[in-house]
Amino acid sequence: MACTSCSTSDGGAPKGCKNNGTCGTDSCNKLTVFDWLANMSPSNGEAIFDCVEVRFKNGRKEFFRNSEKLTLSIGDIVATVASPGHDIGIVTLTGELVKIQMKKKGVNPESNEVPKIYRKASQKDIDIWSVARDREEPMKVRARELAIQHKLEMKISDIEFQGDGSKATFYYTANDRVDFRLLIKDFAKEFSTRVEMKQVGFRQEAARLGGIGSCGRELCCSTWLTDFRSVNTSAARYQQLSLNPQKLAGQCGKLKCCLNYELDTYMDALKDFPDYDTKLVTEKGDAICQKQDIFKGLMWFAYTNNFANWHVLKIDQVKEIIAENKQKNKVSSLEDFAIEVVSEPEKDFNNAMGQESLTRFDQPKRKKKPNRKRKPNAEAAIVATPNKPQAASNQNKPAGGNQNKGNNPNKGNKPNNNNKPNKPNNSNKPNNSNNTNENKPAEPRKPIIITKNENKK
């Protein structure tokens, strides 16, 4: 669904259109609605619905009436009514789906208060719009500095310029009411434009800025979620979730909207369960519920005098005990009703397709202690191995045998050892200045050979 400028390159890296929100196909923007009626013409000669949906910066969308009967399609840049002047936006939806979207957002399609579209944007309008959009980021940095100088407890999250560059809207978040009258005067003096301050909630701020959630996907509020319903901690309790604020809170600092997605399913499953605070009276003592498995229909109970041992009961068995207790009868014990829960064998997914473990770098490296102990012996073996034949031949030689080594008649029959790497030879021994063999290496492993010869002597 992406345009050609947003596609990936030959190496697989994304190109990025860098159009500052003016993508031609409008398929890579926030809260995009797929027009599945685009190829269908109205039946019985009905006129096309004269309202269109226009998108501005981020996910801000508004509806405008095409009173001039312009031929508009998705991706056209138009000049719309603004106060004061005009604004520049991109058409994101046309036709009958606009009427459905207006009813969804509570806008009357037949109302005369729907603003109008002036014209299609000219090249001059687009140039002024682009210059204004480029000023937003440096202005946001300076605006935050001014807010800090005034010691205001507020956060300026975003700035949006009007299409004609005559007005800038500053979006900010704050916990309490903020007196920013002096701040507006500094903004007008610093940026030489008309300033409008608009406070948004923390959820709306996250929707405007966007980001990646803990699930690994884009935030729901910035992609498809349009209505922000209240989320309570009771939703986490019903779903047996730990009340950890770090895990339950989203990037906005509030409870995650996705806690409400499966809440209805859990509520339906809990209708057949007894109350969590129900006590079971037995001859061994009272028992209190410790845990529930909603979808398997199991409850764990433990005696008040022994919380270490838990007993698993089915819902029907719990209801049977409760019915006996209502008749003021005590059951003998929970062991008579308890069942054994067979734990499922854990599935081994290691090396399923021949790949290595993903946690191989998490484990600390083991120290190779045996190799450190054997290291001196290994070096001695390396030194002694190539010199054993020579040492054996030198045992029967006189003390001055090294001086007459060049006249040895059997030495010419030995093969050339130039291709053997790092092999010590007798040509580098001390006091062998008369050696005439030039094919041997100059000084291989001189300190090791000197030490060995001294031991031999």
Automatic annotation (TrEMBL):
Bias-annotated ranges (Low complexity): 394-439
Region ranges (Disordered): 348-457
Compositional bias ranges of the Basic residues kind: 365-375
Domain PSP1 C-terminal, chain residue ranges per copy: 115-200
Pfam families reported for this sequence: PSP1
Source species, domain of life: Bacteria
CC per GO annotation: cytoplasm
NCBIfam families referenced in this protein's UniProt entry, alphabetically: RicT_YaaT_fam
Record protein name field: PSP1 C-terminal domain-containing protein
Organism (species): Flavobacterium bizetiae
Upper lineage: Bacteria, Pseudomonadati, Bacteroidota, Flavobacteriia, Flavobacteriales
